[in-house]
Amino acid sequence: GVESTPRITLRQHQAAVKALAWCPMHRNLLASGGGTADRTVKFWNAHTGAMLHSVDTGSQVCALLWSRHHKEIVSSHGFSQNQLCLWRYPAMTKLCELTGHTARVLHLAQSPDGETVVSAAADETLRFWSIFGSSPSSN
Questions:
Q1: Paired strand residues for 72
Q2: What SS3 class is residue 75?
Q3: How many Å is the maximal CA-CA distance in the chain?
């Protein structure tokens, strides 16, 4: 049956939680992103509720998207740079920053082949990025 109360409640963010993304490679790994007063991407064991890692991104996190083929995650941001950041997981090494939007980057989506990411922003544009590269099997 359906439970009427949450199994786990996580309260470690310091501002609105604006982004969520399940890792496609690890069943219980969830990433969440916080707003302007928080600026962090946090990684959770969704089975136990344990926070595994937190990284300060320097600006509000608006969206998160995992690569289907690589241990990488992309975050999108608002003020002041309105950028996308590509991170290697689990070290959370920033691989690159992608700029071009002139307002908050609100949404991210991945192409079916996993190679292209499209970003949608408050600047009324969609931008297409070759971020993740090809899948290992197509090389």
A1: 88
A2: strand
A3: 47
